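Appendix B. Chain record.
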Amino acid sequence: MIRLVLIALTFLVPWQWAQADVYQDAVAHKDRSAKDRERDAREFPADLLKFAGLKPGMKVADIFGGAGYYSELASYVVGPQGEVRLVNNAPYNEFAKEGLKERFTEGRLPNVKRSTVESCNLRLGTGELDAAMIVLSYHDLYYQDEGWPTIDAGDFLDQINRALKPGGVFLVIDHAAKDGTGSSAAQDLHRIDEVFARKDISAHGFKYEGSFDKLRNPDDDRGVLVFNPAVRGKTDRFVHLYRKTR
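C-alpha cells predicted for this chain:
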C-alpha cells in the first residue's frame, strides 16, 4: 500500500507544481517589457490569473483590453495550444495605439488574435470561450460621450454569456465607486458601484463565485476621478469572478 501511495505521489506532485508554476512563469517570461513589469507591482498578476482559473489550452477573451497587458500574460498561461482574443472597439484602439504597436511588433504573441468590433457585435461566437475578462472597462458600458458609442449594457453582457462554454468564467475588475451610486459615477469618475456591478452581471446568466482582495485600497475614498494624480494607479479596485449558469 505504501509503495502504491509513493508511486501516485511521484505523478501527482510534479503535476501540481506545473499548475502552480504556470502563473509565475507567465509573469517572469523573458519577453515581457519593463513597463509591464513595473505595472506588476500593483496588479499581483500571478495570483490574479490563478484566481481566474486560467489554464494551458484555454480560449480566453480580453474584452476592451486596450494595449493588452493582460492579453500577453494570459497568452503565456494558455500556451501555444490555447488562444487569447484581444477585443477592442475603435476608441479603445485609438487610445491604446502606441502600446499595441509596441506589444505586437515583429509578430509577437502569435496566439493572441486581435479584433476591432462594435459593441453590438463583439464577434465572440457561441460557446467557444473557456474564460472572458474585462479589466477596468466594465464601467464604460455606462459611459456616454460624443466620441464614445452608446452601449446596450444588457446586450453586451448577454453576448459574453453566449460566447462562454457551459461553466465558463468571467473575470471583472474595475475602479470602485461609493456605495449606492449605481452606474452614475461611470460618467465623471470612471468608476462603478461594486454592489450594482454584482447585481447587474448576475442578472445576465452569471453566478458570483467570489472576490480577490489584493487590489483593494481603503485609503481611496472612491469619490475622485481615477486619473487624479492622488489616486492614479492606486484606486480601490474590486475583482469579481462569475461563472456562466445558462
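Further analysis of this model is presented in Appendix C.
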